[in-house]
Structure formats: C-alpha cells, structure tokens
Design brief:
Blueprint lengths: L2 H8 L5 H25 L6 E9 L4 E9 L10 E7 L13 H5 L2 H10 L9 E6 L1 H9 L1 H15 L5 E7 L2 H15 L11 E5 L3 E6 L11 E6 L2 E11 L3 H13 L9 E5 L7 E5 H4 L10 H4 L2 E6 L3 H9 L26 E5 H8 L8 H13 L2 H7 L5 H21 L4 H5 L1 E3 L2 E2 L2 E2 L2 H9 L15 H27 L5 H5 L1
Parallel strand pairs: 1-4, 4-5, 6-13, 10-12, 13-14
Antiparallel strand pairs: 1-2, 2-3, 6-7, 7-9, 8-9, 11-12, 15-16
Helix pairs in contact: 2-18, 5-6, 7-17, 11-15, 12-15, 13-15
The structure holds cytidine-5'-triphosphate and calcium ion.
The site of cytidine-5'-triphosphate has 19 residues, from helix 5, helix 8 and helix 12.
C-alpha cells in the first residue's frame, strides 16, 4: 500500500457517506437557526381600531380602542388607546341649537383621524351611544332629541370611518355593557372566575348590575349572556333621575317644597351645602328637568337664596327621602318599587362614584363609618376655607361634593341595602389596566361580535411552543436518519480491503 493510499484510508472526508452526513447535520442546524431567528424576530404588530362616543348627560367622550388584528376573539385583547373629552356640555344641552351638537365633536374626531393609521380608516367602526341626558330630552321633546341625533349623525358621517349609527341606548344596555367592560378587563371571562358587579353613577342616571344569588322576579331587570362557553344571568337596573346632577334637583325640590307658595324671599337653608355658601339661583336653572315637577308660571321668573348650613346628620336624613321605600310589589325592593335581589360579591364602582370618592380621599381601606366621618368633616368645613384650599377645582363641583358623597353612601346603604361588609367589597375605580371603566367598551365588543358565546378551541400548545417542538423533533429525526445511514453503510471488513 503506497502512502497516498494510506492517506485515503485515514481521512474520513474521503468517505462519501460521512461527508454527506456531516453536511446534512450542518444544513439542518443552519435551517433551524434561520427559522428560529425569523420566528423570534418581533413581528410587526397589526392593529385594528374601533371608536365609541359616550354621549353622556354632562359631557361626551370619544374612546378609541385597539386590538391585535389576528387575535380578535381572544378575551382581554382590546385596549383603550385614547380618550378625548369633548369641550362643552353633553349633546342633550344643544336641544335648542342642534347643529352645535355635531360641531362639538369636531376636535375629538379630528384627533381620531390622526391617531388611527390611514389605511385602517375605512374599516374602523364608529358608534355613538347617548345615555340619560338624551333619554330625558326624548321624554321632554321627542322632536328636539331627533334633531340632536341627526346633527351628530351628520357630523360623524363626514369622517373616513365606517359609521355604524348614533342612538339612545337603554338603561339595561348601559348597565349590562358596563358589567361586561369591567369583567372583560379583569379577565374574569377567560379565567371563568367569579364576576364583579358594576356600579355606574352618571349625571342623570345610575346603574347597578351583578350576578344575583336568587331569581330575578321582574323581566325588565334580567339579562342573560353566553360568553366564552359560560352562561351569565344578570340583574340590572338603571334609575333615571338618580344620577348625581338630577338627584340634586329631586333633593332641592323636596327641600324647597314647604316654601313653594311664598312669592318672594325664598331662602333654602341647606344642610348638604357648606356654612358660608350663599348663592342666589333661579328656579328655572335648578328645576329645568322632567325629573322634577313643572314649575308654576309665577315660579318661572323667580329666584331663591341657596344657603349652606353644613349639618351632615340632617343632610344624610334629608337625602334618604329621595328613596321611596313605602311600596314594593316584589319579595324585595331597592327603592321606588324596583325589584332587587340582595347584593352579593365584589363591586367595581366607577364614573362619579370614583370622581367624588377620589376627591374626598375615601378609599376601600376606609370602613363605612370612617367614610361617614370624612364626609361629616368635609360638609361642616366653611365654604370660604374650601375655596381657599382648592383653588383649581371647579366651584360647582367643590360645592356639591358634600351632597354627592353623602348621596353615594346613602344610595349604597339605604338604596341598594349594602351592609358594612358589602362596602368592604366595593372598590372605587376609574380604569382597569389603563382602559376606562364604563359601558362603551362592552358596547363595542358586543356589536363587533368580539366576545364569542363559545370558548374558541384552544390549541394544546401556544404557537411559539408548537413551532419549537416541531423543530426539535425534526432535528432529532434528521440526526437519527443520518446516524442510521452511517451505521448501516459501514463496511464489515477492514478499510484497506475495500480499497484493494
Ligand atoms: N372630574 C369630574 C368629572 C365629572 N364629574 C361629575 O360627575 C358626574 C357624572 O359624570 P359622568 O359619569 O361623566 O356622567 P355622564 O356620563 O355625563 O351622565 P349619564 O351617564 O347620566 O348620561 C357629572 O355630574 C359630572 O359633572 C365630577 O364630579 N368630577
Ligand atoms: Ca355615563
């Protein structure tokens, strides 16, 4: 055997199957690494968008929601991207100048066109839902309410989005969609965990919604949903005129009644307003609502002096009077002959519940008694002292926090029959994971069918895990094949024999 032959035998690269096997393994590794790099490179997220306008009694907000395009039906995916507060009052205030209702939306809608990527505009749905302010206007003057809706509709149709309608939503919808929002954001549907009840306090109406422990005796108060494969039977009620602005009118009307016949010099000594608060108000401005009785002609041009005396006990007693508990046609009622099962579980209280309690620094850590003590101290504080201390707070809000805070405690305790324990289970919230609590998100999820009745079939492994597992298995198979080739193609005799 010459030297060259010797070399040929010793150098394994001269065996074609070993060369092929090594090349195969190298190729497999390169392919795997390449796939892993492509797979793990952050994908450019594609988002879709939806716009909901909350046309409340006191103001309008424009919410933009976004969600990853490929994950429409996964709960917890939709998030609030932006909220824009429309300047000026709620749309129902434009009943005498309806064209201004549409105009008022311009700034926030222009913002929305800038926020949402242009190529998504045509497919982005826009919904407007009006609540208690428009319900009251419709009761008062149907024609005016239609003009206001037509005005906002005209304005919204000028935008490049997919306009889906402007309507007055019912109190049941408002309650139920608020409940869906809170539980969607808390991921209670996905986890099939216990749901939380929803308490919404607006300017003109207030809603209570929860999963009751007993049957709902009145069909008006019952709503059923099937979400992600679970059935939910809800109790919900919306009290029109029991939002914080309208209930103040109810309260003032009751306070002023004994003096109602007097023709001049009407002084209202109000225990829910601060000592030193002394403001002349017109009957017309305070009692301009279908929630209170019509003014007599003589009252229309008349004024009264609204004088605070800051007496929390008296204030608390007087507020209880707005709840009529004298009659109940069911086994049990909250107030005003409205059926309500006993409250149960945890509650999230939002909108004005939050604004008021946040201002008063009442947190879930305070007991109900402690909350009352805080209110008592606030209500007895002289008006001048408060104005000095809170120069930046709107005077109207500042003056009304004593009334509103006391009303909130009374609504829960005397209205809905919350015990001290139920109070402990109640949290005042503004947002959940940066999305605002309110009916708008639930409304959009429902209208875009983004919460399916049945749980989508979930794959055994998440996509990433599936790809990785497949790669490892493929690699193992390739290695086995190659090793098999090497093993079975190995010559049985000594190497030099083959060469000779
Ligand atoms: N920082 C704020 C913002 C609002 N408010 C008051 O809180 C009340 C409720 O506000 P909101 O929930 O926005 O009511 P609307 O949606 O306008 O009313 P509704 O739901 O009854 O139509 C209103 O009296 C509003 O003036 C407040 O006290 N502090
Ligand atoms: Ca509202």
């Amino acid at each position: 055997m010459d030297e060259q032959q010797e070399m040929k035998v010793k150098n394994p690269w001269h065996r074609p199957h070993i060369f092929l096997a090594t090349a195969g393994i190298a190729a497999a590794i390169i392919i795997m690494v390449a796939i892993a790099v492509v797979q793990n490179k952050p994908l450019q997220q594609k988002y879709k968008y939806g716009i909901v306008l909350d046309a409340g009694s006191s103001h309008t907000s424009v919410y933009i929601y976004e969600w990853p395009a490929e994950k429409e039906n996964n709960t917890g995916m939709v998030k609030q991207k932006q909220a824009c507060s429309v300047k000026g009052p709620g749309i129902s205030s434009y009943s005498k100048t309806p064209e201004k209702a549409g105009e008022s939306l311009k700034e926030c809608m222009d913002n929305a066109t800038k926020t949402i990527p242009k190529h998504r505009h045509p497919e982005t749905p826009v919904y407007l839902g009006a609540t208690a302010g428009m319900r009251l206007l419709k009761m008062e003057n149907d024609v005016d309410s239609k003009k206001v809706l037509a005005s906002v509709e005209k304005s919204l149709q000028t935008y490049p989005f997919s306009y889906q309608g402007a309507r007055i939503i019912t109190g049941q919808e408002e309650g139920a969609f608020g409940w869906i929002t809170v539980n969607y954001l808390s991921e209670n549907f996905r986890k099939a965990s216990r749901t939380v009840g929803a308490l919404d306090l607006g300017g003109a109406s207030t809603q209570i919604t929860f999963v009751p422990g007993q049957q709902v005796e009145s069909s008006d108060n019952s709503i059923d949903f099937r979400l992600y494969g679970n059935d939910y039977h809800l109790y919900t009620h919306s009290f029109l005129c029991y939002g914080k602005d309208q209930v103040l009118k109810l309260y003032l009307e009751q306070q002023i009644q004994p003096n109602a016949d007097m023709t001049d010099n009407i002084i209202l000594e109000d225990p829910c307003f601060h000592p030193g608060y002394n403001i002349i108000k017109s009957f017309q401005s305070v009692f301009d609502s279908p929630c209170v009785k019509n003014l007599t002609n003589s009252q229309k041009g008349q004024n009264f002096t609204h004088r605070g005396i800051g007496n929390w006990n008296k204030c608390n007693q007087a507020i209880k009077e707005v709840f009529n508990t004298s009659h109940c046609r069911y086994s049990r009622c909250s107030f005003n002959d409205v059926f309500q099962p006993p409250v149960t579980g945890r509650f999230g209280a939002f909108s004005a519940y939050f604004f008021v309690m946040d201002f008063l620094n009442v947190t879930p850590d305070h007991s109900l008694d402690e909350a009352k003590k805080i209110l008592e101290a606030y209500c007895t504080t002289p008006w001048g002292t408060l104005k000095q201390k809170h120069r930046k707070v709107k005077e109207k809000y500042l003056a009304e926090y004593c009334f509103s805070g006391t009303y909130i405690v009374s609504l829960l305790e005397d209205g809905y029959k919350f015990t001290t324990n139920d109070w402990k289970n109640t949290e005042f919230i503004k947002t959940i994971k940066n999305s605002e609590a309110g009916w708008t998100l639930g409304y959009m999820l429902n209208l875009t069918n983004m919460i399916p009745a049945e749980a989508p079939d979930t794959p055994l492994l998440p996509y990433g895990g599936y790809v990785s597992l497949m790669l490892v298995l493929s690699f193992l198979i390739i290695v086995c094949i190659i090793l098999g080739c090497i093993f079975f193609r190995r010559p049985s005799g000594p190497a030099h024999k083959e060469i000779i």
